[in-house]
């Protein structure tokens, strides 16, 4: 019964989110589209990663007096909604009047797009570079083991996965070996590997296209663990990166947090060994290390 009620609650939450997106995609799109030229485009992006606390970050950032958020997170414009056009995209951001009002009070103004799936698709890096080349990029990375398990648990909650976690990762490991992935090769996209729960944690391969297009001083990479354990300081690190005044956000409650059973310790050990070379590749690339081998 508990599982049913939990699933029903998730279903209702999903329905509410779907209605909200429908409203912005079709209803508000036409009204706000008429004023799109009076609206601003984002100054920075949170491009990843999924299941890493980006929804919480979306709300944390908005607490800064100089920041104004988009209509909702995960806009997906540079990916699945690109066909809707720039007028639609602009319709989801604050007006120039909001910008003037905030800037007159604080001397600063910025708005942002939080879409964590962006980081996995190199053509999105090219699209953003072409349209907004001076944008700053923020990447939140979670221990790929916990990320994979969180993603799996979410699919179980939504009744779209009936296999055990061990069965899923066994199949994913086989696919990774089969495809010998290269994220720069467009034939990789659309394969089983692209959407596998393990390949989503191959962060170095995902980040390389972004660092090839954007200067290092326009990209900030943090871990979701430091965001969760030291929220206020980490958020202020982001504010500093954005050249905004320091500000202590009053509300650090986590948003969209899921609860699920503990992972089998033996499975975690297998995944520690599996991800070790990929994590070392990331740490070498960033010249920065996260404590993930636990």
What's the number of extended β-strand segments?
5
Oligomeric state as shown: single chain
Return the CATH topology.
Rossmann fold
Decide which structural class fits the backbone.
Answer: alpha/beta
- What is the helix content? 40-55%
CATH homologous superfamily heading: P-loop containing nucleotide triphosphate hydrolases
Number of helices: 11
Over all CA atoms, what is the radius of gyration? Answer: 20 Å
Question: Average pLDDT, to the nearest integer?
Answer: 88
Q: How would a crystallographer describe the biggest sheet?
A: 5 strands, parallel
Give the CA-CA distance, first to last residue. Answer: 34 Å
- State which percent range the strand residues make up: 5-15%
Unreliable stretches? 1-12
Task: Describe the overall structure.
It is a single chain. The protein is of the alpha/beta class and 294 residues long. The protein has a single domain (2-143, 206-269), classed as Rossmann fold, CATH 3.40.50.300. Helices cover 50% and strands 8% of the residues. It contains 11 helices and 5 strands; from the N terminus they run H-E-H-E-H-H-E-H-E-H-H-H-E-H-H-H. The protein has helices at residues 2-33, 54-62, 85-90, 96-106, 122-131, 144-157, 165-179, 203-213, 224-229, 231-241, 265-286; strands spanning 44-48, 67-69, 110-114, 136-141, 219-223. The protein has a 5-stranded parallel sheet. Helix 5 (122-131) runs parallel beside helix 8 (203-213). Mean pLDDT is 88; it is low at 1-12.
